[in-house]
Amino acid sequence: MTQELEQAAIELKEKQSSLVVQDDDGYKFAASLLTEAKKREKDIKTFFKPLKQKASEAHKAIVAEEKKFLSQINIVVDDCNQKMITYQDEQERIKREEAAKKAEEIRKQQEEIKMREALEAESSGDK
Are 104 and 112 spatial neighbours (Cβ–Cβ below 8 Å)? Predict the structure, then answer.
């Protein structure tokens, strides 16, 4: 069937290549060629429609199967990502706490140094 469709298309193309519309006969020939081309177009679409429909149904079935498998994988991916984010957030929280503790220790040390310096200054008579 595809060879017949292809042959018909070739024949139409050959007729079209010699088409010249300069008089009534040329116009009638063009109209006849157009009618034949429209019929062949319909024949081609009719031929391929069930094939395309089967291909579409097969595609939909494959996509549904793929989705079923991927949904399980996506659960794993989402869970891993969430747990990793939770871990990173906790590590960042720990670092912030440690930095705050160090900053507080430094502040206390500086305060002690100032107090010691003030006491030394007071005891040596400097005010």
Answer: no
**Residue labelled with tokens 């081309």:** 37
Find out whether 27 and 21 touch, Cβ atoms under 8 Å: yes
Residue for token pair 């177009």: 41
Rounded CA-CA distance 10/34 in Å is 14
Residue 125, SS3? coil
Average pLDDT along the chain, 127 residues, taken 10 residues at a time: 87 86 92 93 93 98 97 97 98 98 96 92 73
Instruction: Kindly list the distances between the CA atom of residue 1 and the CA atoms of 5, 7, 36, 89, in Å, as whole numbers in the listed order.
Output: 6, 10, 18, 66
Residue 20 in contact with residue 55, Cβ under 8 Å?
Answer: no
Compute the 3-state secondary structure of the chain and give helix, strand, coil in percent, each to the nearest 5: 90, 0, 10
Cα distance between residue 44 and residue 1, in whole Å: 10
